[in-house]
Amino acid sequence: MQFKQVEAFRAIILTGSMTAAARELHTSQPNISRLIAQLERHTGFTLFTRVAGRLAPTPEARAFFRDVERAFVGLQDIKASANNIRKQGTGHLRIAAVPSIALTIMPSVLKAFAGKFPKTRVSLYVGDSGTVAQWVASSYCDVGISAYVDEMPGMNSERFDTLQGVCVVPQDHALASVNRPVRIRDFRGESFISLHSGDGTRRNIDALFGAFEEDYRTMYYECRYAVAICNMVGLGMGISIVNPLVAKNCLHMGIVVKPLEPQVAFSYFILSSTVHVTSTLALEIHSILRQELQRHK
Fold it and tell me: Are the C-beta atoms of residues 291 and 154 closer than 8 Å to each other?
């Protein structure tokens, strides 16, 4: 099976006739007819029939076209990438990040990156830490930022920063006005809105409360996303411990951010593929991200 045969088949499907397909591909109608005959011999089924004088694709041809079109879409992406690299020397950078980074400082990171590489195409994908790791390990994304890591083939990880968690309370809560850090015993009798049990940082918070004889939390709600948790806190549904980056960006939700004692770590990891060398563009994202995190501390 040759590319020209498949290209001729696709052109007929899209234009509706061999004559139009020949015109589209800058060739002759007899040549298109010959290519289709060759493709039919190769596939072993008829591709077109004539109905009332018009060329009509067979059911087999329609099924075949779905796979052909997917292949052509992929080919067009490859051509576009090559064109970008040829014209701009940049290409396409794919970044995967957990929501606490993607929804807070990543826009500033991308703005700074665009100042240095204004013509680079960037795609930002958002997912939990496990999903981010899978995207990087499979080389679907060039760089990942996760909140925790588990060993995974095809992936390198490096802890690049650790932030200290904060307590968030409603504006009218008694703890909002105390002139000291919130302590673990302050959670006694309070509705605690927890991170999801599958979250890696949740394990750190559980260990913090587990160090005491009594678990002072009363948990009615748990949620995967800290932005939603802050919104729930602002609505008076409880108090929580969240990432300080998220808390800082959610002050408009009616929350007050308090330091926590003892502290609990919220770490970030840079993920890269073991299969491919980290690109200059990905390394630049690493550098800008570190600077932005320092600026927000």
Answer: no
Residue 151: strand, helix, or coil: coil
Dihedral sign, Cα of residue 172, residue 176, residue 177, residue 183: positive
Q: What residues make up the domain containing 38?
A: 3-88
Total number of domains in the chain? 3
DSSP, residue by residue, 266-289: EEEEEEEESSSPPPHHHHHHHHHH
Kindly report the pTM of this predicted structure.
0.65
What is the per-residue pLDDT across 127-150, written as a single tens digit (0 to 9) for each?
Answer: 988 899 999 988 888 999 999 887
Domain with residue 172: its CATH number is 3.40.190.10
Q: What is the pLDDT of residue 87?
A: 47
Mean pLDDT, rounded, of the chain: 87
The residue from 88, 115, 146 where one domain ends is 88
Residue 97 to residue 103: CA distance in whole angstroms: 9
